[in-house]
Amino acid sequence: MTVYSGPVFDMAVNQFAVIADHLSIPHDERDRLLLPKRALTISCPIHRDDGSIAVFEGYRVQHHLTLGPTKGGTRFAPSVDIGEVAALAIWMSWKCALVGLPYGGAKGGVRVDLSSISKRELESLSRRYMQEMIPFVGPHIDVMAPDMGTNEQVMAWFMDTYSMYQGRTVTEIVTGKPVSSGGTLGRREATGRGVAHLARRVLKELAIDLTNATAVVQGFGNVGSYAALGLHQFGLKVIAVSDHTGALHDKAGLDIPALMRHAGEHGSIAGFSNELHFDPAQLLTLACDVLVPAAMERVIDANVAKNLNCRVLAEGANGPTTPDADLVLQKRQDEIFLIPDILCNSGGVVVSYFEWVQDLQQLFWEEEEVTRREYHILDRAFDQMVTRARVDKIPHRTAAMAIGVEKVRAAKITRGLFP
Ligand code: NAD
Fold it and tell me: 189 CB less than 6 Å from ligand 1?
């Protein structure tokens, strides 16, 4: 039992236990690898538009500092708590190590229902959150990025607030910023584009013709919409998508560019079509070649896993599959090819790393170079995962996490234990 205990943190603990057993990590080393190094809880008071004061609880967790600064997104959602943030920070660590980035994992968030605050209140909250975080973060300490409920605009407010306190522009304090404020080309698209790239790679290896293939995407925010667009551009029919307002289904394939324009203008997929409505509860089990959960964690439980009807499960979201569901997927691994979250959605942090490097050097790359380098890193990690899974006869998730955990552990062993 720790301050972090809760359903999402327990999931990260259970997953780690599987990896630690597989790697025969001695028990007295496990807590050092698993438990977050630092956590901060803050209260963010803001003035509401009606003149009253509201206080929102915020968090930031830095998992380990062994490989360099920590890196991770900031989530604005009603479900956010310290345990969820800690789990997400731990997954970030294994992800960064898997793809070879010089970072530990971090995550942050504010417990807030975005539908209940205005744009001005959101700006106040974003600025106050960053202001409270100043003693805890820094370009060489902890670098934030967007996650669920935050976007380029929020990152620009974070960067501006930090810069005002430093008395100079510090673009490298956050990634996922607008290109006009020191962001990189290709970051907005990076996570979803990476999901689509890896899914295409698996379809080719399974000899499935892309132009006859279908995809289903849960969540139509940053990750889901660009994953859907990438798959659409690769020739797949995206036959269903959903967001928090509902689901759309068209077996002829949805017009994804038009749906993205609609969601950009209206904030959701609601109102796009009167004829294509579909029961969101049935979305994950629709028959398709590629299923992309890209909304939130723990949506695929054992029951859903038994009923999945896809060939490739490309995890765009973090932690969409519960440990119970993993046991089902292990039995079904000849039918369903799993691309686990820490690999599948790692294009986001890979391109965030490129953004940080470009900001530090003040030398900016063309989008083509960003995407080429992103795909190169994803392909290298994919090859390592598949080889490891084959050699050790383990599931893809175990293989991907084992590579990440091993790298962090090796660095801790060579650095030793201070003092
Ligand atoms: P976002 O806020 O841009 O989008 C979230 C989407 O999920 C929205 O379309 C929302 O309507 C939808 N959603 C919410 N509840 C839903 C429900 N019950 N059913 C269906 N859809 C629902 O967030 P995002 O940045 O796209 O992040 C999505 C997931 O991807 C999260 O798990 C996040 O941690 C992960 N992720 C994001 C990035 C990134 O670069 N943004 C990188 C790696 C992983």
Answer: no
